[in-house]
Amino acid sequence: MRVAVLPGDGIGPEIVAQACKVLKKLDGRIQLQEAAVGGAGYAAAGDPLPPATLALAKEADAILFGAVGDPRYDTLERAKRPEQAILGLRKALGLFANLRPARVFPELAASSSLRAELVAGLDLLIVRELTGDIYFGQPKGIREKGGSKGAEREGFDTMLYSESEVRRIARVAFEAAQRRSRRVCSVDKANVLETSQLWREVLIQESKNYGDVELSHMYVDNCAMQLVRNPKQFDVIVTGNLFGDILSDEASMLTGSIGMLPSASLDARGKGLYEPVHGSAPDIAGRGVANPLATILSAAMMLRYSLKQPEAAARIETAVAKVLRAGLRTADIQAPGGKALGTEEMGDAVVAAL
């Protein structure tokens, strides 16, 4: 099994190093091969996604990704900025299905931004379509617009989905629900958007092939409210790229810290890119204080979905739970007055728990 390791920028190298340490302890047969990406890719090869990095990603069985984003490159043209690396990987590898679980470990219920009783036992999955919608729809741009008061600029983007794109993400959501509590909530804005009307029609059609799964629909603004009002009503949420981007970040705060949330981005064959939901956090980079648990849990998802080792994935997840039960915390999940572990110390604790 060959894994492309792309640490990226900011805290990426620190947290990815801990996930790699856990993988090596668990299974010495996994081959880990590292390459530069993001700002590090631009520094090394003048491209946030160097050709050699993309080639490695295509050849590997799975990709373990850190984070991209570096303020030193904020003045570059958009095509050369670090964030273009992850968009390029998603498009080039056909990673259309983003799975973002939001699970509250019992020991962290009090760390949530909501009351503990609202989130205790929370275990939901957001399935986000990743390669369509307004991020990729054409045309887009900024243009001059004339008018009675003179010319001014206007920006425009196109929200676009084909029926086949909606159908394939619907299948991912329904099949995920079959392994869980058999409930899918499709989130759209069908009352005002033509794209969402098509989305809803296709979800209803596809649901007929999954008679054991209950399908419901919710407008995105209501869903944003319901996630903080009664999050445990949800099992699987399926939605488009833009809405999923926003809702999954909102859901992350229900768990106590964005530093706890893993994610998987899968192609049609189950090959995937695995990364923590959070960004590169340049403000704390190099200080050894970042929480590596989201990246370690992303490695567990990699074992489960792409490398077909569910038992090994469960071992990592159990080790993380054991560490939390022991009261070990990084700064982002530490109660006031408690002692926080550093990034490497938390990685060592998970290895010991294995």
Unreliable spans are none
Radius of gyration: 20 Å
Q: How many domains make up the 3D coordinates?
A: 2
Instruction: Give the second-level CATH assignment, the architecture of the largest domain.
Output: 3-Layer(aba) Sandwich
Number of helices: 12
Distance between the termini: 21 Å
CATH third-level topology of the largest domain: Isopropylmalate Dehydrogenase
Could you report the average pLDDT, rounded to the nearest whole number? 94
Summarize the structure.
With 354 residues, the protein is α/β, with parallel strands linked by helices.
Give a written overview of the molecule.
The chain is α/β, with parallel strands linked by helices and 354 residues long. The chain has two domains: 1-98 and 261-354, Isopropylmalate Dehydrogenase (3-Layer(aba) Sandwich), CATH 3.40.718; 113-134 and 161-255, 3-Layer(aba) Sandwich (Rossmann fold), CATH 3.40.50.2300. The protein contains twelve helices and twelve strands. It has helices at residues 12-26, 39-45, 51-59, 84-93, 116-119, 163-178, 194-207, 220-229, 241-252, 293-305, 310-325, 343-353; strands at 2-8, 31-34, 62-67, 97-103, 123-129, 141-145, 152-156, 183-188, 214-219, 236-239, 262-266, 272-276. The strands form two sheets. The protein has a ten-stranded mixed sheet with strand order 2-1-3-12-11-4-5-10-8-9, with helices on both faces.
